[in-house]
Input
Amino acid sequence: MNTSKEIFLKDDFIPLLEKLKGDEKGKWGIMNAQQMVEHFADAVKNANGKLILPALNDKLQKFRNFLMSEEPFKENTKNPLIAEEGVPIRQRDLPSSINKLKKELAYFFEVFEMHPGLKTGNAFFGELDYEMNIQLLHKHAMHHLRQFGLV
Output
């Protein structure tokens, strides 16, 4: 497929994150840089099928329309899967968190290459195929890159 969003996730996203120090706060929200990277790694684990989350959405079609649009996530978008105090740090430092994210992204591309028709469940957007997961991961990545002033 090799869309610009897929190429961005494969080649450009991680180098942008590597510009972070780890403790900076975003322009909005409660997570610091390391928490954001670990949160994003969980989103990739959900997309690659390693992390199964309960369905939370009764407005699936409305959310899917948003997903497939180019409309960005709003600043301070609330995620009911994240506690008010943010997400706990699981890795020893930011480089370790980024390395974990790299591995999850590589596995995402590998699993969909091996199983092109695979669909994974998303708590907000329902079952997503490869193209829809790419759309969501790119939209989500851009949201956090804007949050931390990296784009």
User: Anything to note?
Assistant: The two ends are 25 Å apart (CA to CA).
